[in-house]
Structure formats: structure tokens, C-alpha cells
Amino acid sequence: MTDSTTQSKTGLIDQLGLRWFFRLLSSSIGQKFVMGVTGLLLCGFLVAHLAGNLLLFAGAKAFNEYAHALHQQWELLAIAELGLLLLFLAHVYLAITTAIGNTNARSAQYVMKQTKIPGRVIGANSWMFASGAVVLGFVILHLIDLRFALRFDLKYVLETDPEAPYLNTITVLRNPISRLIYFVGVIILGIHLSHGFASAFQSIGLNHPKYMPMIKLLGKIFAIAIAIGFASIVVIVPGLRR
């Protein structure tokens, strides 16, 4: 990289006022802080997404009206989706870098002091990374199925069929394999949230001993509510009559 290119990028960062952000990401503490913030914002999205999807219980008319109301605000929807994508990518990237850092740290500690069970490095962070990887795959599948409607068995196009949102969702959930995958996916999501919610508060520095027990309890309640909410859609909605 030439000096002029480096100076150009530095100048752009200064113009956008983002130098503080890059300084924040240059430390492990800063990375964990940003990952915690993005995680909590994604939790907020899950609440809104679940609230909208619960309209499936109200039938085709209510859900289709909700879906079309969103798409009529296409400019705001595009901005929201872009922001959500950036949040998700930042969260995934920081999760990977944090996991690599934790693995390297554990490896160094293991060399200094071996445990009674050689090679044992499984902990909460390991489970978080594993469940997060499953959730990432589940999200990609969900986007392929229902955001971009790339499945071969989806016959309804949003632009031409006003009932497409409901019919496409029902088509996906009535497929036995998809139904099982979605059920397992939301359960793994709940497992990820059960630790991730409280971990996010710790990452942003809100880890006072007085409040953490309550935050951990709220995290478990939140995780169970999200998992049960989405699982109920997967289990019950395909059997409902339109």
C-alpha cells in the first residue's frame, strides 16, 4: 500500500469522524464492547421480528397486510435492512476475532498448566461460538427461503400475488424437512441468547455484582420467550386453516 493511499484512507476516516471507532476496535475490550452493543440491538430486532410473525396466527389477511405495509415503505425498509446487515456482519466478525483471541489465550494457558483432562478447552465461549455458527447458517437459509424466495417450491411472487407473504411462509413450514430445520434453528437461537444476553451487558461494562443476577435471569426469560415464540409458529401455524 502506497503512502498516498494510506493518507487518503486516513483523511476519509477523519472526515467521517470515525477515528474514535477504529481506535475502539483496535483493543480486545473495544471489540467486546461493540459486539455487546450489536448483540443487544439484534435482540431488539428479534422482538420486532417475532411480533410481526405472530400475526401468522391471525390468518392470511392480517399477515399479508403487515408484510405489504412494510414493503410500501421500501426506502425506509432498505435503510433498515442495510443497517441490520451491517449490525449482523459486525457481530459475526467480532465474534470470530474474539473466539480466535480466546482460543490463543487458552492455548497459552494450557501450555503453562495442563488440566487433568488433556485438551479440555470447552467453556461458555466455545458454546457461544458453536451456537452462533448454527444461527448464522439458519439466518442464511431463512433469507434464501423467505426474503429472496429462491426455493423451487415457492410459486407466489410478492409483486404479483397479494397473498404471497402468507402462502410462501406456509409452503416453507409445511415442508417436513424445513419444519424440522426451523424448529432446531430457533431452539439453538434460544440457547445462544440464554448466555449472549447477559454476556452483552458484561461486554459493555454493566456487570455490577448487584445487578448481574437479575440480568442473567432476564436473559434466560428473554431467550425462552424468543425460542418458544418462534417455535410455536413453526409447530402450530402450518396446521391452521386459512
Structure overview:
The chain is mainly α and 242 residues long. It is 77% helix and 0% strand. It contains nine helices and no strands. Helix 3 crosses helix 8 (176-203) and helix 4 packs across helix 7 (164-173). The radius of gyration is 21 Å and the shape is globular. It starts with a helix and ends in a 6-residue tail after the last helix. The model is unreliable at 115-123 (pLDDT under 50).
- Return Rg in Å: 21 Å
The helix-and-strand class reads mainly alpha
| Individual helix count | 9
Helix and strand sequence: HHHHHHHHH
Tell me about the biggest sheet? none
Count the beta strands: 0
The end-to-end distance, rounded to whole angstroms, is: 60 Å
Q: Which overall shape is indicated by the principal axes computed on the Cα atoms?
A: globular
Strand content: under 5%
**Rounded mean pLDDT score:** 84
Q: Which spans have pLDDT < 50 for at least 5 consecutive residues?
A: 115-123
**Roughly what percent helix?**
over 70%
Brief rundown of the structure:
This protein has helices spanning 3-16, 19-25, 28-53, 60-72, 74-112, 124-147, 164-173, 176-203, 212-236. With 242 residues, it is an all-alpha fold.
Give me the secondary-structure topology:
Blueprint: H1 3-16, H2 19-25, H3 28-53, H4 60-72, H5 74-112, H6 124-147, H7 164-173, H8 176-203, H9 212-236
Helix pairs in contact: 3-5, 3-8, 3-9, 4-7, 5-6, 6-8, 8-9
